[in-house]
Design a protein that fits this description.
The chain has 193 residues and is of the alpha+beta class. The protein folds into two domains: 115 residues, Dna Ligase, domain 1; 49 residues, no CATH class. It is 29% helix and 15% strand. It is built from six helices and eight strands; from the N terminus they run E-E-E-E-E-E-H-E-E-H-H-H-H-H. It has a four-stranded antiparallel beta sheet with strand order 6-5-7-8. Strands 1-2 form a two-stranded antiparallel ribbon. Strands 3-4 form a two-stranded antiparallel sheet. Strand 5 and strand 6 form a beta hairpin. Helix 5 crosses helix 6. The radius of gyration is 20 Å and the shape is elongated.
């Protein structure tokens, strides 16, 4: 099977065991998804993408959707709808490679990805915000909506500031919801522990 690298446009020979997984280009180190081969019956299928904030894109064919995955435009928290099924599913269910637990990219020692930083083509599934920090901010400074400003929700933060955190009730409930992991950051990513 052949695949064209999205980084350097070099043709890569890929083994069948890599289908549905991520591979690294030996020339430019670009990480990309190896799409599953299309059947002729699937040519009529179109897909729609719903981002973490609810923006909808498409319809596009599966090949274009595979390119979006390689470009990092599709995350595990995105939703996809196939024209044949007519229902929304998580992108991580259609592309298991997007799920954080099933990462198939081997760790790199040295270079731009050393020290836990992300390299080109990789996306972080979890937020850089901590649920402990956000929850404690909510418990102690919830009257001012500080936890919502911290998570990237300035409008809700202003509302909490104007209402005194809903006289403390709203800020207390909000803090509990944050601590149990029910509130994502403004990009829709789950908060880290």
């Amino acid at each position: 099977m052949e695949l064209t690298c999205t980084g350097c446009q070099q043709k890569l020979r890929i083994g069948e065991e890599a289908v549905g997984k991520r591979v690294r280009c030996p020339q430019c180190n670009q990480i990309q998804y190896v799409p599953v081969e299309q059947r002729t019956a699937a040519a009529a299928e179109t897909w729609r993408l719903k981002g973490p904030r609810g923006d909808e894109y498409g319809p596009v064919d599966r090949a274009e959707l595979d390119r979006w995955v390689n470009q990092g435009r599709v995350t595990a928290t995105s939703q996809l709808m196939c024209s044949t099924s007519g229902r929304w599913v998580w992108a991580g269910d259609v592309y298991p490679v997007l799920r954080p637990a099933s990462s198939t990219v081997p760790p790199v020692t040295g270079g731009s990805m050393a020290g836990g930083r992300l390299g080109a083509g990789q996306r972080n599934y979890y937020s850089d915000k901590s649920k402990i920090v956000a929850g404690v901010l909510g418990l102690f400074l919830g009257y001012f909506g500080i936890q919502r400003f911290y998570l990237g929700y300035p409008f809700i933060g202003i509302l909490m500031l104007c209402t005194g955190g809903g006289c403390g009730v709203w800020s207390f409930i909000d803090s509990i919801l944050i601590l149990v992991g029910s509130v994502p950051d403004a990009d829709g990513r789950p908060l880290r522990d």
